[in-house]
What we know:
Structural class: alpha+beta
Radius of gyration: 12 Å
Number of strands: 5
Helix content: 10-25%
Strand content: 25-35%
Number of helices: 1
Order of helices and strands: EEEHEE
Amino acid sequence: MAKGDVDTYHEDGQWKNRPEGNERASSTHEDKADAQAQGREMAADSGVEHVIKKQDGTIGEKNTYPRSRDPREIPG
């Protein structure tokens, strides 16, 4: 991840958001949907990538903000 990208992940029974470069999570949530919404907003406000991990820690989804920065020419 590039510096500043937002990572949404599961740890200690909670879903968390942490911008790359920070040692601690910026927000914690009871469920993944709330964490994703907050992470999406953080990434969009900063113009960075939002990396959403599954509960097992593997990457489930990546979204680039703004969309025009997405390097790929494929839909999705």
